[in-house]
Amino acid sequence: MPRKIHFIISGAEGRSRALSVKTSRLKLYSALCILMLVCLSITAGFGLHSILQNKKMHQNLSQARHELGILQQQGYLMLTELQTLRQQKAELFRHEVAKLRERSTQIEEILTQVGVEVATSASEIPPETDLNSNLGGPYYPLPLNEPESLMDFAGEMINLATGIPLGEPVSGWISSGYGARTDPFNQRRAFHYGIDIANQIGTPIMATAAGEVIFAGTNGGYGKMVKIKHPDDYTSIFGHLKNFKVRTGDMVERGAIIGTMGNSGRSTGSHLHYEVRLNDKPINPYPLIFLGEK
């Protein structure tokens, strides 16, 4: 006979009931209950996990929206700064173009004063269609409004000015000018083909224009001398040096140190004898020094 489990239930009035359940069914019911509990636990776990995930996603979404707002604000600020920089750049460019135009005009005036002819570029000369036409009217120079044309013009002026000896070759004071004077040794009237600039021994001496050193050595009354050949047939001579900073054949730029002041040669004290020659003919270097200060 199959085994059974009997349950006796008694009431408050003394009545009782008896229930009997087969052992196999009880085991089945127990297994079903356990399975249902397991399923409910798994479902509850997934639900809790989903709730936590949703909460985390909401937090991430809120943070992303906040960061997006910050990025949008930063982008707006960057656009504003970019616009400001563009305006500043345009203003700076206009200012620099005006300075370049003014500087180019000054250089052109200096070149004209020292006798250098400034040629007008072919692109700035309108073609003449009829040489026999009746022409006239006031003269107004063609304005250089285009930055490219202005830069080309300025570059041409700078190239021309680079080879002309301009400015002071050394710091100091002029102890003897260009022209007739009393010779310091024999007290006779003589012609001085340069200017003397006095200062302490060892004062640096600079090239006044770009060119080639064609002589660096001792030359009679000049003592230790440096001679530089420049473009446009200019030559500069530096006499009575203490020592040399260049050698014959060196290429120098304006402002390069070529030696130091001394008292070599036919000299009564520490000074620089400075000459400028055009086509090997001495000219007064003082106007060139004055023009170089502009």
Which bin fits the share of residues in helices?
25-40%
Give the number of helices: 3
Stretches where pLDDT is under 50 for at least 5 consecutive residues are: 120-131
Write down the Rg: 50 Å
CATH superfamily of the domain at 173-292: Glucose Permease (Domain IIA)
Give the beta-strand count: 14
Shape type: rod-shaped
Strand content: 25-35%
Report the CATH architecture of the domain at 173-292: Distorted Sandwich
Report the order of strands and helices.
EEHHEEEEEEEEEEEEH
CATH topology of the domain at 173-292: Glucose Permease (Domain IIA)
Structural class: alpha+beta
> What is the distance, rounded to the nearest whole angstrom, between the alpha carbons of the first and last residues?
133 Å
Describe the model:
- The protein is of the alpha+beta class and 294 residues long.
- Among the domains are: 66 residues; 120 residues, Distorted Sandwich (Glucose Permease (Domain IIA)).
- Strands 3, 6, 7, 8, 9, 10, 11, 12, 13 and 14 form a ten-stranded antiparallel sheet that branches. Strands 1-2 form a two-stranded antiparallel ribbon. Strands 4-5 form a two-stranded antiparallel sheet.
- The chain is rod-shaped, with a radius of gyration of 50 Å.
- The N and C termini lie far apart (133 Å).
Which helices and strands appear, and what pairs or packs with what?
Layout (H helix, E strand, L loop, with lengths): L3 E7 L5 E7 H91 L33 H16 L10 E4 L2 E4 L6 E4 L2 E4 L5 E3 L4 E8 L5 E6 L4 E11 L6 E2 L4 E5 L9 E8 L2 E3 L2 H7 L2
Antiparallel strand pairs: 1-2, 3-6, 4-5, 6-13, 7-12, 8-9, 8-11, 9-10, 10-12, 10-13, 13-14
Helix pairs in contact: 1-2
